[in-house]
């Protein structure tokens, strides 16, 4: 099995050595760079499985690196974990809103850092039979990178929420998810969405899918699942 690749970006040499050593010891392939420009070049040239990104960098800072990675279709899918001494709420929120998946503040425990990295990688790991990250189930083809859904070679226009809902359910056919689990996955734990809102989204999604909307099954008293 190929090693997962992690790009570590930090301008402090001792941090690069510490993080690089612990990641390699735990079986990861590690690339270390010290500037935002080098991070962008490395991520675009050889896309890693995760970027561990310091916010305080010379030249292009970490927030700008995150923004540019998420805007580029070639790198938008790469998860980002912020590693920073800036623990202020505004900085953390800014990074998360730009698309970062998690953050760890300095000083940090290597064990905690590894646990957070593993958690993010698990969340972004595609289904075992889908090493391209594109979901193919029944007649549906869902491309998360291009944000496209096609049926019988024809595209379907979905809102961002509808797309994420469909992607979440279709990744685990047969699994039953509660409305709260769907809310957490689609819009985040703190997003003020009600159970009724999930039902409305499902109704709209089924209509757009036409006859294929029947793949989204209602499990009475529990929630929804994607038909196996």
How is the secondary structure organized here?
Layout (H helix, E strand, L loop, with lengths): L4 E5 L3 H13 L3 E5 L2 H10 L4 E4 L8 H10 L8 E5 L4 H9 L4 E4 L4 H15 L10 E3 L2 E4 L4 E4 L2 E2 L4 H11 L5 E3 H9 L7 H15 L6 E4 L3 E4 L2
Parallel strand pairs: 1-2, 1-3, 3-4, 4-5
Antiparallel strand pairs: 6-7, 7-8, 8-9, 10-12, 11-12
What's the shape?
elongated
Mind describing the biggest β-sheet? 5 strands, parallel
N-end to C-end Cα span? 28 Å
The CATH architecture assignment of the largest domain turns out to be 3-Layer(aba) Sandwich
Mean pLDDT: 85
Strand order of the largest sheet: 2-1-3-4-5
The CATH first-level class of the largest domain comes to Alpha Beta
What does this structure look like?
The protein has 228 residues and is of the alpha/beta class. It folds into two domains: 5-124, Rossmann fold (3-Layer(aba) Sandwich), CATH 3.40.50; 135-226, Winged helix-like DNA-binding domain superfamily/Winged helix DNA-binding domain (Arc Repressor Mutant, subunit A, Orthogonal Bundle). It is 40% helix and 21% strand. It is built from eight helices and twelve strands. It has helices at 13-25, 36-45, 62-71, 89-97, 110-124, 160-170, 179-187, 195-209, and strands at 5-9, 29-33, 50-53, 80-84, 102-105, 135-137, 140-143, 148-151, 154-155, 176-178, 216-219, 223-226. A five-stranded parallel beta sheet has the order 2-1-3-4-5, sandwiched between helices. β8 and β9 (154-155) form a beta hairpin. The protein is elongated, with a radius of gyration of 19 Å. The two termini are 28 Å apart.
